[in-house]
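[step 3/7] fold_predict: job queued, chain A
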Amino acid sequence: MRPTVPSRRIPHLPGTGSVVLALLLGACADASVEEEPPFDLLITDVAVVDVVAGETLGAHSVAVRDGRITSLWPAEEAPEAVQAERVLDGEGRYLVPGLWDAHVHHRGGAELRAQNRALLPLYPLNGVTTVRDAGGDLTAELLAWRDSIAAGALLGPRILVSGPKLDGPDPSWEGSLALADPADVPAALDSLQAVDGGTGVDYVKLYDGSMSPEVFLAAVRQAEERGLTITGHMPLGVDFLEAVEAGLDGTEHLYYVHKGTAANRGEVTEAVRAGELGFWDAFAALLDERDPEREETVFGAMAERGTVAVPTLHIGAILSEVERTDHTADPELDYIPAGIQETYAGRVASAERASLESRENNRALRAEFVAMVPRMHAAGVRLLAGSDAGAFNSFTYPGFALHDELEALVDAGLPPAEALRSATMHPADFMGMGGDHGRIAEGAVADLVLLRGDPLEDITATRRIEVVVLRGQTVLAGEDLGSAWTRAGERARATGTPGG
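[step 4/7] structure written:
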């Protein structure tokens, strides 16, 4: 379902029983009340979506102080006189944790630095309060933007950084670290752990452009020894189960899981190692080769070890149809700088050059990925919602695409509650942040989104945003939210050309 952007980006609040921003004055007549209100924010009479239990709770009051949820009361048990700097009337609304996009990219070098920065507000404006950057060539910029966002000087999501990707001797993407031999791995991991003055990257991202199986497995094993989270693509010359057993924490996309569960995986692996099959030919050979017994083994190993998968179904749908879909009228383009839009042409041109057989194979492969999703969930594999939005990934729009991904997961067969977990508690838990993020609970960081609908009943409700709360400090609602959308469009146009 294509989004109707105006209805979700600038809510028309007056006259609809909408959120009201006001000071709570009920206890002001009591001279004994302290002058300084005890809470920074109070949300009253709101239905709380409990992503852990997968159920919507009745009306609650949620109090925030110093960026965290400090109190959570059923409405009938809330104290009669509670003071707060700001109050949101949540009656008839639904409160969810801030959403996570577990796979995005900021890249394109200095020429696209300003354009990437202009994309950042699109995440919180779409209720996405945290993103996991999956590698690029703007690491220094990301760290600076992350600090500005945390300080409240820049509107954007919390950014988890992988830094440069690890690849083989001929990297596919600019800014990657080239590893020709297993002996190169220690220095590469040292450099990632030295990022940001020794704070280190949040996780390590692998890429299969030219990486050998030996280097890949060495990187996984050494990251495991160092206690580093490591995810990514993998060479097709490695068996997926071997990678899981070596310590791979997560796989980006479903290509590698698909190959690892195919009946002819062994012969395809040997053909790849012998140079007889390239990437796309290998996956053409893997079509309709599902091995249920092997799939049970692989999924069981992933579930037992906690190896996650990021399906990225939405971008698969976009790219499988990109040569025959007209995106020129997409309303989201109003918020995408021209320099980023120009990078979309590469995927379109590639699809137009592909043979009819290749295009059909690509669509068939995506159908197999979609069918895998509910089977992985049933086996206990944790799935993380990731859009793959960013430069060069055509018509997959930052912020907006996370909602598309949630809908794609539900369309594939995930229950709405599990789809919502894939964009809240699962990525938070995977990144070791579950105690503070990804759920609505006392003590959790107050990244919150107020919706006009229950996403457990209809996942498209995640688009119907009325209020976004970032770390309990920034509250976007009503005119503030509308103005922020206006500024995002203006910034996109102001940084519309490469180098702008």
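[step 5/7] annotate
Residues 1-34 have pLDDT under 50 and may be disordered.
The chain has 19 helices and 18 strands.
exit 0
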